[in-house]
Amino acid sequence: MKRVGLFLLPLGLFLFIVVFLLQGLFSDPREIESSLLEQPVPEFRLPDVMDASIEYGPEVFEGELTLLNVWGTWCVTCAIELPFLTELRQQGVRIVGLYYEQNMDPDFGGKSLPQIRADIDRTLSQLGNPYVFNIFDESRDTSMDFGVTGAPETFLIDRQGKVRLHHVGDLNERVWQAKFLPLYQELSQ
Amino acid sequence: MLAELGHFSLVLALLMAILLAIYPMWGAQRGQVLMMQTAKPLTVGLFLFTLFAYLCLTQSFLDNDFSIAYVAHNSNSLLPWYYQITAVWGGHEGSFLLWVLIFAAWAVAVAMFSGGIPQDILARVLAIMGMVGVGFYLYILLASNPFERLLPFYPVDGRDLNPLLQDFGMIIHPPLLYMGYVGFAVVFAFAIAALVAGRLDSTWARWSRPWTLAAWVFLTLGIALGSWWAYKELGWGGWWFWDPVENASFMPWLVGTALLHSLAVTEKRKAFKSWTVLLAIAAFSLSLLGTFLVRSGVLVSVHSFASDPTRGLFILGLLVLVIGASLLLYALRAPQLRSVGRHELLSRETMLIGNNILLCSATLVVLMGTLLPLVHKELGLGSISIGAPFFDEMFVYLIVPFVLLMVMGPLSRWKNQPVAALRNQMLAGLGLSVVAVVLLNMGRDGLSYMAVLGMALSVWIAIATVQEIRQRLSASKQGLAGLTSLTPSHWGMVMGHLGFAAMIMGIAMVTSYSVERDVRMTPGDSIELQGYEFRFLGVEALQGPNYSGHVAKLDVYEDGRKVSHLEAQKRFYTVQRNIMTEAAVDPGFTRDLYVALGEQLNNGDWALRVYVKPYIRWIWGGAALMAIGGLLSMSDKRYRMAKLAKVREHKVSAAGEAA
Amino acid sequence: MIRLLWVMTLLLPLYASAFEEVYGFNNEQQRQLFKELTEELRCPKCQNQNIADSDALVAQDLKRKVYQLVLEGKDKTQVIDYMRVRYGDFVYYQPPINFATLFLWLVPVVFIIGSVGMVVWRRRNAATELDTALIAKAEKLLNNDKTQENNP
């Protein structure tokens, strides 16, 4: 009978693999946990997208529960989530924009700053403006420090300036209810 | 109308599969000839109904019938007709239809070309094909029907075929690969039939071997072609990425290679039976696992089809049934198998065991590397990536002992090999290969250890192969005339091993000595790389049937002499709004010149990627040699059926004893 | 951004060997390091591509950052750690070593040791298990089959 045990080994190995394959079917392999979770936001000094004389740093997150939303006017999905974000703002959620410009490639030049500002004005007046202000990440270096892979992405940052939640893709009613709201309510108390 | 006919035909094929799964097996267990005889006509029916369904779908593509969802998603009226035919397997549903068509074709081949096999065994083999088939056909009808209609609202024109797939390499890559995957179903069916019948003997190995070879040849070609296609079409100049989907095709290949070798032992020496049968089950199981990985979306890959958890669940269920049941049967039956062949520690048997152990651990490396990111994440440990650095390192460790065994194996005799003779041969071979490597590397600066190691291993295999032939000739005492007395299957081994040597050479050279530059150029610029001067002539606009784009023209000079003209394209496919790089390649025996066109920069310059890749053709050439080796082995007389029948007669006693 | 213009004098008069490398380097080691890093770092947004092969915006950003760091004289581990802090272990194609990933190396090694052990153990036991008469019978059968013996 000892020999049978050995011959059962392949079956055991196979069933072990199946368990994980089954679990894998119900999770998205492209969803990657941010390494910033539970960490304070990285250091940065960046200007306001509309007014270069105003500068922001990590202190803008202190004392207030904030959603940091990475977006750009060129990004199609961002345009889809703007109305919902505006709705959130009306409910009293503080949303700060991190403006992530695609065309400002340091190598190639691209859109000029006045053009970008005009684009932002037009987009926000059409689709709603959820932002308290927009931080302008021209070189995308700060985005890299945040581990941003594209737009749109959203971070929930607590009153101590720590990242508590990270979402890649558009923020809609469903995602808000399921992923953000429980933690948001807990933190806002 | 065609779609409905096709659909109905598939239902009939399912019916055939169900009958095939029941009657012949029943007949074989009861010893009723009439029921066993139904196997052949049912198999033919299965094939014909599937073929008809397949043709219906193809005709729908040619008719631009966009009321069929699958056609609308994967074709377009502007698509050239030859791509409309190949677009049939461009998406999930159609490629699975091709899969079952090939499956049915293999079943028919077994029914037709197995005249020498006892009727009850053949009936069992086909019945097992039928059982597996029931699962496939149910899947295609219930979860992935290619004939589904988009009624009443259907699009005026289709969404077009994925531009990546609009290429010659892609036309034949999937069918070849499927031929390999599904071909292992035949080997699997033989193994299960033998387990069920309790007759696992060397005749079983002899029947299985040509089918294994056939599947293995197709898989080898399919993988090589995929690699060549990626090289040409993806514009990165790479030939292997350790992508989960590539790994999924590599695992059955590794196990299939192990199986080929262990079947040789089982056939000739009646040893390793339980091991060989496990490999036969594993080869097909890994093919199925690969199918699951590609089609379920559990892993992130460049190749995966759009995923759908219900489909994934269905295939997983199928996997559990087919693999689980066969491994259970194995666990119950295998312990009763006895191997009778005795052998000493130093013998060809031992070398082949070693070969099998290494090939299987290579499979485990690939399996772990492919699935562990999934396990890691499900355990809540976060996402990790396992790629080239890990696999490359592990394979370097594995290849050294593997080559050592590959050198020793053919030089060793069955049962018992005297130490001194083998040692002398090996020392001579090693000495010669070191000399050869020194000569080959003279005058090259910037030596890479890996390249030197790879070259030495490659040359050593080649020398050992020659030594083995010489040894055989001196044994036959006929001089060179003795060459003709070597069997085709022997030449198959020689070709296979030489092909492997060529492949190692290619891999070592490309990995270590490729050079590349990312450059910006204006027309009139030139760049010098490895003694080649690439002159950028300029970029012109390009207009294709369903795309537009740019083509960059370059002339390549060596020592002031023009050696090549290259045209690298960048295409924009209008319907799918997709940009595709079509690299320009000047192939050569010792080097490829490769140029890919990037984007245009603001000042009018163009970004270009220029590569010189030494010996890259040797990788695919090596694969082709291996495939030729496989074909030679298949052509061996001893697998011909008339002969088989004769062999069987005086084997009956042996078979009874082994069971 | 520092750009290096590579101008070489060339004998051929018609085509000036003037081209600009997208990423130019001071020496061959840096070029090699950059190549290695961009091939071993994974694009976090793409399906399954390294940053050298990907045209995605984030891959280009990472490539540029790697370039900067290499020019600053950072070594391989420093650059990889820089990326890991931001994008996690996912960004590097060599998995970290921990309890779960240990099996990557352990399983193949255990398999090799185990199966070699099995082969030796069974060889030692098999001889006693079978009685000699059966072996003699088997050998006789095998000898009948000798015609094809030397073929693989």
Automatic annotation (TrEMBL), chain A:
Provide this UniProt record's keywords sorted from A to Z. Answer: Cytochrome c-type biogenesis, Disulfide bond, Redox-active center
Family of the protein in this entry: Belongs to the thioredoxin family. DsbE subfamily.
List the molecular function annotations (GO) for this entry: disulfide oxidoreductase activity
Give the protein name, as stated in the record. Answer: Thiol:disulfide interchange protein DsbE
Instruction: Please report the record's description of how this protein sits within the membrane.
Output: Single-pass membrane protein
Gene Ontology BP, a term: cytochrome complex assembly
Q: Which GO terms describe its cellular component?
A: outer membrane-bounded periplasmic space; plasma membrane
Q: Which residues form the Thioredoxin domain?
A: 35-189
Which Pfam family is an annotated match for this chain, by its short name?
Redoxin
SUPFAM superfamilies attached to this UniProt entry: Thioredoxin-like (SSF52833)
Q: Entry's InterPro entries? A: Periplasmic_diS_OxRdtase_DsbE (IPR004799), Redoxin (IPR013740), Thioredoxin-like_sf (IPR036249), Thioredoxin_CS (IPR017937), Thioredoxin_domain (IPR013766), Thioredoxin_ResA/DsbE_sf (IPR050553)
Q: Lineage of the source organism?
A: Bacteria, Pseudomonadati, Pseudomonadota, Gammaproteobacteria, Alteromonadales
> Quick one: where is this thing mainly located?
membrane
Instruction: Tell me yes or no: is Disulfide bond among this UniProt entry's keywords.
Output: yes
Does the keyword Lipid metabolism feature in the UniProt annotation? no
Q: Which PROSITE patterns match?
A: THIOREDOXIN_1, THIOREDOXIN_2
Give the subcellular location.
Cell inner membrane
Name the gene behind this protein. dsbE
TrEMBL record, chain B:
Q: Where in the cell is it found?
A: Cell inner membrane
- Where does it sit, as one GO cellular component term? plasma membrane
Record-linked Pfam families = CcmF_C (PF16327), Cytochrom_C_asm (PF01578)
Domain Cytochrome c assembly protein: residue ranges? 89-296
Supply one GO molecular-function term.
heme transmembrane transporter activity
GO BP term, pick one: cytochrome complex assembly
Topology in the lipid bilayer is annotated as: Multi-pass membrane protein
* Transmembrane stretches, start-end: 6-23, 44-62, 96-114, 121-142, 178-198, 210-230, 250-266, 278-300, 312-332, 353-375, 395-414, 426-443, 449-469, 490-513, 615-634
- What are the record keywords, sorted? Cell inner membrane, Cell membrane, Cytochrome c-type biogenesis, Membrane, Transmembrane, Transmembrane helix
What residues does the Cytochrome c-type biogenesis protein CcmF C-terminal domain cover?
A: 316-637
Family membership = Belongs to the CcmF/CycK/Ccl1/NrfE/CcsA family.
Q: What does this protein do?
A: Required for the biogenesis of c-type cytochromes. Possible subunit of a heme lyase.
Q: What is this protein called?
A: C-type cytochrome biogenesis protein CcmF
Gene source species: Bowmanella pacifica
From TrEMBL, chain C:
Q: Which domain of life is it from?
A: Bacteria
Q: Name one Pfam family in it.
A: CcmH
Biological process (GO) annotations held by this record are: cytochrome complex assembly
Q: Which family does it belong to?
A: Belongs to the CcmH/CycL/Ccl2/NrfF family.
Q: Mind telling me what this protein is named? A: Cytochrome c-type biogenesis protein
Its biological purpose: Possible subunit of a heme lyase.
Q: Which residues form the CcmH/CycL/Ccl2/NrfF N-terminal domain?
A: 7-134
CC annotations in GO: plasma membrane
Query: What are the recorded GO MF terms, alphabetically?
Result: metal ion binding
Q: Which UniProt keywords apply?
A: Cytochrome c-type biogenesis, Heme, Iron, Membrane, Metal-binding, Signal, Transmembrane, Transmembrane helix
